[in-house]
Design goal:
The protein has 18 helices and 48 strands. With 932 residues, the chain is α+β, with helices and mostly antiparallel strands. Strands 20, 21, 25, 26, 27, 28, 31, 32, 33 and 34 form a ten-stranded mixed β-sheet that branches. Strands 35-40-41-42-48-44-45 form a seven-stranded antiparallel β-sheet. Strand 38 and strand 39 form a beta hairpin. It is globular. Bound molecules: beta-D-glucopyranose (BGC). Beta-D-glucopyranose binds next to helix 5. Beta-D-glucopyranose (BGC) binds next to helix 5.
């Protein structure tokens, strides 16, 4: 029975839209249903896969036909057809039936294309252009790295190599694909035109074990006759100066390239053009390009037409063939880094010191495009920074080795020219311009914003513009720091710190679809796990990252950081309903918990011998040795080290308990029941040991700081009888601090939730609306456009610190805004069931949270005018929801103008003490009522 209104669309293959070049053997499909009717649930689906669109539309000669599958699942439905073949494009479509038997039309056609699945598919050879090896920097300890203030010696940097290969195409092509990767970062051109729109390929991964190749569709770029393939290489993350200590050569000191251009002619014959000794190389006009130092270009040295077929490369050198194992090659997975936005100049400033500074009005990650006309040889210097100092002068807020963020352009002269660096990016809002010929006008500069190009999935807004700015700041910090990997900051370290993303992941998953991006990063984190089970503080965990951690901590992991291996997959499972992500990392999680358990059992604190037997007995459940970051950067600690030292023991044991609890839940979900039982028992022991060791009869913790209470309450470490007292301790600390927070990285995500959960919602609101330092709105009122690393990066007396002004960690309050102010909660993973709870008592007159779940758009919006309430809700097709209408009386609630009691179908309701609870099927609803 076709009712005509049931539609199916938004097809995703492995969470991506029409991915090309994947290496997933069993791809999973998702789709969304649409209907004008309310209360629609999927009852069955059918998927068809074929290797041409024609076969698919005729339904003949199919590769897979699922048949009609009785199921309400419309996300992550696995392919079950024959084995997938390298290079092949597969077309698919889906149709659905709802619970009334109504049948949709077939969806539009989507596709995915396989990459090179077998080692033998690779015919290309690694090649290395003629080059001087990259100069390796001395290793720095943490102290040395922080105190480093030597100027950068750019004379040791080398020009970016150019590579080219010409080839001839005798007849018309049906299809051309370029498979490519590099040691370093690269840009390809075919016949002078840029290949693809990605930036900084092959991006940042643990190269020695996980090096991505990209698949480019280049059919339109290759033409009959003479062709040329060109590439520029730069040091990138592979050989360039990266991380806190700005060290070069983390993965190697020679740049290299691997490519394979596969051609299919109209007559079906095939040809492969590969990287081999016939490729020639020279040097480009990019005198150096380093991600941290910046890029220097001498436009006078441009080799015009170097990537065109007729270019004379007789003076170029032949490349060397290099020998590397290719077992580390993986297909690129996820959204590439792209230019995601362009921003105009807001103002051109002449500072008190007389510097010319362009202000883009927004802190970001990216670079600047500049147009200029002038004499050949004129040198223009662009320096990037996130803040101005107290006087309004340009301030380089990032200290350390190779943190210059300085681009230099030397004019070719004559005609108007445009400069935009190719292989570097900076964290900035302000650009100091030196040497510009003539007057600097706003139209000469554009900011080019770079980010991993993920889909936006959420928005939050409310009646307070400051909170709206906070939300925008969170999104900007996410955008700037999700650039290939989840970074701490886009200037000083740009490192994949595991603690930062662990606290931010629920917020991140509201704002953008981070499923694939974070799964890829988790793969790298898991690859970096040490043989003893330690999950390092970040990934990629390169040599100097490791060295720095060792000089600070004597080991590779910290509580609250390594736990990301459990917390991040758990958050992805919650947001997207993907069980596979739990399965994939399960072994790594188990090994991490085993490591903590062994450490707790084997390492005893210094005062062990003075303990009584009972205390000795419980030491094996306390993670109380070694260095940890603790509740990092909580404001009342004088220094970061102090914040670590004062809280580390309580924080570490809290995370030992939390991760064990999560692992027990994960094991149960995966059907590993004896594991689930084992971790649940272990969690019980840790909880008991925690309260016996750290909690006294007054409900006071040995680390008497806000964050310690927050974690103890959030992670269920406080025995029920003591809870009221513990909550009072937390409340008195907050009161004593003038209703300002004093929480660090790992506790702040739970601060407001804990207060709400334990009946102190009004205090949560006071903290949210607080404008004195430290607080979220303090930053907003100080003009922040992103989230700062430290609450007081600009101090109340106006002093500007040398901190990062773009760290997303403290932006983790975003998740709470969506849930507790917007009222948008999930009741079942992946939002299959939704729970709407408007926070009409928070002091705002309206708020609206919108989220694009895998099932479709969810809206929770509420407004209040005097005693009149409106609650607008959208529940996507194939899901159900519950709405709580606070303080409502059933007799005077209307839905879309009709008294609730008279509404028909898919709605049931109940008068409760707190208001009216309504159960909903899918659809758009508008509830109105007034308070008596
Ligand atoms: C980074 C962090 C990171 C921390 C470890 C800092 O330098 O910027 O965000 O998590 O070190 O404590």
């Amino acid at each position: 029975m076709a009712l005509g209104d049931l539609e199916v669309g938004q097809l995703l293959c492995e969470s991506m839209v029409n991915p090309v070049g994947i290496d997933i053997l069993v791809p999973r499909f998702s789709w969304q249903l649409k209907s004008v009717r309310r209360g629609v649930l999927q009852a069955a689906y059918r998927i068809m896969v074929a290797d041409t669109e024609e076969k698919l539309s005729q339904g003949t000669d199919l590769i897979w036909d699922s048949g009609k599958v009785q199921s309400d699942e419309s996300v992550f439905c696995a392919y079950e057809g024959e084995q997938l073949i390298s290079r092949k494009r597969y077309y698919w479509r889906v149709k659905v039936w709802d619970q009334t038997g109504a049948e949709s039309e077939w969806s539009t056609v989507a596709y995915w294309e396989m990459g090179l699945m077998q080692r033998e598919d690779w015919k290309a050879l690694w090649i290395e252009p003629k080059q001087e090896p990259v100069v390796e920097d001395s290793i720095l300890s943490l102290r040395e790295a922080l105190q480093y203030n030597e100027p950068t010696d750019t004379s040791i940097l080398h020009p970016c190599p150019l590579l080219r290969k010409s080839f001839f195409i005798p007849s018309n092509l049906r299809k051309a694909r370029l498979y490519a990767t590099a040691h370093g970062t690269y840009v390809f051109q075919i016949n002078g035109q840029k290949v693809g729109n990605q930036e900084l390929a092959p991006e940042f991964t643990s190269y020695d074990r996980y090096l991505q190749y990209h698949t480019y569709e280049v059919t339109d770029l290759v033409k009959k006759g003479a062709n040329a393939l060109g590439a520029i290489l730069s040091d990138g993350w592979y050989a360039g100066r990266i991380g806190l200590s700005g060290n070069s050569c983390q993965y190697g000191d020679r740049l290299g390239l691997l490519f394979q251009l596969e051609l299919e002619y109209e007559d079906g014959t095939q040809e492969i053009i590969i990287s081999d000794h016939n490729v020639k190389s020279s040097f480009s006009h990019i005198l150096y390009s380093d991600q941290f130092i910046g890029e220097k270009v001498d436009a006078r040295l441009m080799k015009d037409g170097w990537a065109l077929p007729d270019y004379d490369d007789s003076s170029w050198d032949h490349v060397d063939v290099a020998h590397f194992d290719i077992s580390n090659l993986v297909a690129h997975y996820g959204e590439p880094v792209r230019v995601v936005e362009k921003l105009p100049v807001v103002q051109v400033i002449t500072t008190p010191k007389g510097e010319t500074v362009v202000d883009f009005g927004q802190v970001m990650a990216g670079r600047v495009s500049m147009s200029v006309t002038g004499l050949a040889g004129t040198e223009i210097i662009l320096e990037h920074s996130e803040v101005l100092d107290e006087q309004g002068n340009f301030l380089n807020n990032i200290m350390g080795r190779h943190k210059d963020q300085k681009d230099i352009y030397i004019l070719r002269g004559g005609e108007p020219e445009t400069f935009e660096p190719s292989f570097t990016f900076h964290g900035f809002r302000y650009v100091k311009v030196t040497g510009y010929p003539g007057i600097v006008l706003p139209e000469h500069f554009t900011a080019i914003v770079l980010s991993s190009d993920m889909r936006y999935t959420g928005s939050f807004e409310c009646s307070d513009e400051r909170i709206n700015r906070l939300q925008q700041n969170i999104v900007w910090s996410q955008k700037s720091n999700m650039l290939s990997i989840p970074m701490d900051c886009p200037q000083r370290e740009r490192a994949g710190w595991s603690g930062d993303i662990q606290v931010f992941v629920p917020t991140a998953a509201f704002n953008m679809d981070v499923h694939v991006f974070l799964t890829r990063w988790l793969r790298n984190l898991a690859l970096e796990q040490l043989p003893n089970g330690e999950i390092p503080n970040g990934a990629p965990y390169h040599k100097s990252f490791r060295y720095i951690d060792h000089t600070l901590m004597g080991k590779d992991s910290s509580a609250g950081w390594g736990d990301a291996i459990i917390i991040v997959p758990w958050a992805l499972f919650q947001a997207y309903g993907d069980v596979q992500v739990l399965e994939e990392f399960y072994d790594s999680m188990v090994r991490w918990i085993s490591y903590i358990r062994r450490t707790a059992e084997d390492e005893m604190p210094d005062n062990y011998e003075q303990m009584d037997d009972e205390q000795k007995e419980r030491q094996k459940y306390l993670w109380n040795t070694g260095y940890h970051f603790g509740d990092w950067l909580f404001p009342s600690a004088a220094t970061p080290t102090e914040s670590a030292m004062m809280t580390k023991e309580v924080v570490s044991t809290s995370f030992f308990a939390y991760s064990t609890l999560l692992l027990s839940k994960i094991a149960a979900i995966l059907g590993r029941h004896s594991d689930a039982e084992e971790y649940s028992v272990l969690n019980g022991h840790i909880r008991n040991a925690f309260s016996e060791e750290y909690l006294n009869d007054e409900g006071m913790l040995s680390a008497h700081f806000q964050g310690a209470y927050v974690l103890a309450l959030q992670f269920g470490l406080v025995p029920e009888m003591a809870r009221i007292k513990v909550v009072e301790q937390l409340v008195s600390l907050i009161e004593g601090n003038g209703y300002r927070l004093d929480t660090g990285f790992v506790s702040v995500p739970f601060l407001l939730d804990v207060l709400c959960k334990y009946g102190k919602r009004e205090i949560a609101y006071m903290l949210l609306f607080q404008t004195e330092c430290p607080s979220w709105l303090y930053e907003v009122e100080r003009g922040a456009t992103t989230i700062w690393e430290s609450w007081s990066a600009i101090q109340p007396d106006g002093k500007v610190s040398s901190m990062s002004f773009n760290h997303y960690a403290f932006g983790c309050v975003g998740d709470w805004l969506y849930r507790e102010i917007g009222g948008l909660h999930k009741e079942q993973v992946g939002y299959k069931k939704i729970n709407i709870q408007p926070a009409v008592d928070c002091g705002l007159s309206y708020a609206s949270a919108k989220y694009e779940s895998r099932y479709g758009t969810i809206v929770s919006g509420w407004s209040k005018q005097g005693r009149q309430f409106t609650v607008e809700v959208i529940i996507p097709t194939n899901t159900t929801g519950t709405v709580m209408l606070p303080s409502a009386n059933l007799e005077n609630v209307k839905e879309s103008g009709i008294p609730l009691r008279e509404t028909l179908g898919f709605i049931s309701f109940q008068q409760m003490n707190l208001g009216v609870s309504v159960l909903l099927g899918s659809g758009n609803y508008r509830f109105t009522y007034s308070l008596e």
